[in-house]
Amino acid sequence: MGCTYMSEWNHFVTMKGTNHGIVVYLDDQCSFEQVLQELEEKLTSNTSSGNTEISIHSQYRYLTETQRQEIEEIIKHYNHLSIKSIDSYVMTREEAHDLFEKSTVKTVMKTIRSGQIHSVKGDALIIGDVNPGGTVEATGNIFVLGKLRGIAHAGIEGDVQCIVAASFMHPNQIRIANKISRAPDYDVEGSPREFAYVNPTTEQIELNQMQHLQKIRPNLLDVFERGL
Amino acid sequence: MGESIVITSGKGGVGKTTTTANIGTALALMDQKVCLIDTDIGLRNLDVVLGLENRIIFNLIDVIEGRCKLQSALVKDKRFDCLHLLPAAQTSDKNEVTPEALSDLIEQLKPDYDYILIDSPAGIEQGYKNAVAGADKAIVVSTPEKSSIRDADRIIGLLEQEGLSDPPFLIVNRIRKHMVDSGDMLNVDEIVSTLSIELLGIILDDEDVIRASHHGEPVAFQPNTKASISYRNIARRILGESVPLMSLEDDKGFVTKVKKLLGMK
């Protein structure tokens, strides 16, 4: 009897040590309450006390935001544990659609004029100029095949890896994630083929010549990586 | 069936009204039937520039509110039989007109005229919306100043959403050659490259224009000033002729000509 009891428990939560730390697999067929209950049991019986990062994997169970919070609550009780990530094999249609949107390039063929705001999910490709007073916003990168003389805001949802590239760079402002840089108060000429990125050491937006882009952002085109 | 063209700019004081009066006059000189509509309700002045102020009996609002017939509100120009003006009201305000009302009115005028020029008020509010509603084409007037170009850019952006038959055309007004040469004013190429629309014409900043407006006689009526030639060239381009842009360079004074004759230059 005791034996059956144990095996049933074992079935719902499995811990595995990997090179990247402990991965906790949650069964995706039983009820969520059973998972929580067993997770708690497992963690209490866990005797190790060193600081550990754990990754949670719910396999083919879709976790709602509240369910994720419930898991996080349980982990919080154990001071030596922290959550590295919560993953699963599934996502909702909305999330999939959002991911798709954010990993595609949105192209327009027009001039973004003063007072106009061109806002896209994903990367923005503008075939035309962005005039002074005009704004381009994107969750991803911004590429301007023309003169960028207005405002470009890349990574509006907070991705500091995003860049702004233009055939001719003469912007009012460049914003990447929550960083802002503006043109100097003296007259500047603007320069051809440049891109702007956030330098991780200075944490400031910097301009660089296009030929250095490959070195600075080698993974620029791995859009799915970024979307996730 | 006539064509309606709105003349607009966003910024005030760049010469919309003067341009409307002069293009109207130039078109009339070429035997076109032209009707000018002043939509700057409350601040009418197209009639003043044309010298027709004294002849106004009814106005646009009277027509729209049914107090008179459309025909009786039209003021005939004192120089041309084929140039008519529908004046704005001086006492009402812009919110008394709806875009639909103005658009209907223009449809009624179209069969009788070759061109209907609509003078728009400054700004992008109700008055602008009224003016643009009935237009088939648009002309954007800008001076070579940064603020004016910024507003012109804004207006072009708004006009692109209006479903006009062509993208708007550009007139660069009040060019001061010596300032362009010294780099204190943008040159025409820079303006056209920023706004990226087709250039319909350029007009030099010329005292003749101010003098003519002062006397209520559009400069386009004069035979030989630079400004009048520019306006007539614009009218010819509207009629579909291809006329090269006037050169800014041939601005030679009497002394230079004499010097040249004497072989001193």
Automatic annotation (TrEMBL), chain A:
<comment type="similarity">
    <text>Belongs to the MinC family.</text>
</comment>
<dbReference type="Pfam" id="PF22642">
    <property type="entry name" value="MinC_N_1"/>
</dbReference>
<keyword id="KW-0131">Cell cycle</keyword>
<dbReference type="InterPro" id="IPR036145">
    <property type="entry name" value="MinC_C_sf"/>
</dbReference>
<dbReference type="GO" id="GO:0000902">
    <property type="term" value="P:cell morphogenesis"/>
</dbReference>
<dbReference type="GO" id="GO:0000917">
    <property type="term" value="P:division septum assembly"/>
</dbReference>
<feature type="domain" description="Septum formation inhibitor MinC C-terminal">
    <location>
        <begin position="108"/>
        <end position="206"/>
    </location>
</feature>
<feature type="domain" description="Septum site-determining protein MinC N-terminal">
    <location>
        <begin position="13"/>
        <end position="86"/>
    </location>
</feature>
<dbReference type="InterPro" id="IPR005526">
    <property type="entry name" value="Septum_form_inhib_MinC_C"/>
</dbReference>
<dbReference type="InterPro" id="IPR055219">
    <property type="entry name" value="MinC_N_1"/>
</dbReference>
<keyword id="KW-0132">Cell division</keyword>
<protein>
    <recommendedName>
        <fullName>Probable septum site-determining protein MinC</fullName>
    </recommendedName>
</protein>
<comment type="subunit">
    <text>Interacts with MinD and FtsZ.</text>
</comment>
<dbReference type="InterPro" id="IPR013033">
    <property type="entry name" value="MinC"/>
</dbReference>
<keyword id="KW-0717">Septation</keyword>
<comment type="function">
    <text>Cell division inhibitor that blocks the formation of polar Z ring septums. Rapidly oscillates between the poles of the cell to destabilize FtsZ filaments that have formed before they mature into polar Z rings. Prevents FtsZ polymerization.</text>
</comment>
<dbReference type="GO" id="GO:1901891">
    <property type="term" value="P:regulation of cell septum assembly"/>
</dbReference>
<dbReference type="Pfam" id="PF03775">
    <property type="entry name" value="MinC_C"/>
</dbReference>
<dbReference type="InterPro" id="IPR016098">
    <property type="entry name" value="CAP/MinC_C"/>
</dbReference>
UniProtKB/TrEMBL annotation, chain B:
<dbReference type="InterPro" id="IPR027417">
    <property type="entry name" value="P-loop_NTPase"/>
</dbReference>
<dbReference type="InterPro" id="IPR050625">
    <property type="entry name" value="ParA/MinD_ATPase"/>
</dbReference>
<feature type="domain" description="CobQ/CobB/MinD/ParA nucleotide binding">
    <location>
        <begin position="5"/>
        <end position="219"/>
    </location>
</feature>
<feature type="binding site">
    <location>
        <begin position="11"/>
        <end position="18"/>
    </location>
    <ligand>
        <name>ATP</name>
    </ligand>
</feature>
<keyword id="KW-0067">ATP-binding</keyword>
<comment type="similarity">
    <text>Belongs to the ParA family. MinD subfamily.</text>
</comment>
<protein>
    <recommendedName>
        <fullName>Septum site-determining protein MinD</fullName>
    </recommendedName>
</protein>
<dbReference type="GO" id="GO:0051782">
    <property type="term" value="P:negative regulation of cell division"/>
</dbReference>
<dbReference type="InterPro" id="IPR025501">
    <property type="entry name" value="MinD_FleN"/>
</dbReference>
<dbReference type="GO" id="GO:0000917">
    <property type="term" value="P:division septum assembly"/>
</dbReference>
<dbReference type="GO" id="GO:0009898">
    <property type="term" value="C:cytoplasmic side of plasma membrane"/>
</dbReference>
<dbReference type="InterPro" id="IPR010223">
    <property type="entry name" value="MinD"/>
</dbReference>
<dbReference type="InterPro" id="IPR002586">
    <property type="entry name" value="CobQ/CobB/MinD/ParA_Nub-bd_dom"/>
</dbReference>
<dbReference type="GO" id="GO:0005524">
    <property type="term" value="F:ATP binding"/>
</dbReference>
<dbReference type="GO" id="GO:0005829">
    <property type="term" value="C:cytosol"/>
</dbReference>
<dbReference type="Pfam" id="PF01656">
    <property type="entry name" value="CbiA"/>
</dbReference>
<dbReference type="GO" id="GO:0016887">
    <property type="term" value="F:ATP hydrolysis activity"/>
</dbReference>
<keyword id="KW-0132">Cell division</keyword>
<comment type="function">
    <text>ATPase required for the correct placement of the division site. Cell division inhibitors MinC and MinD act in concert to form an inhibitor capable of blocking formation of the polar Z ring septums. Rapidly oscillates between the poles of the cell to destabilize FtsZ filaments that have formed before they mature into polar Z rings.</text>
</comment>
<keyword id="KW-0547">Nucleotide-binding</keyword>
<keyword id="KW-0131">Cell cycle</keyword>
<keyword id="KW-0717">Septation</keyword>
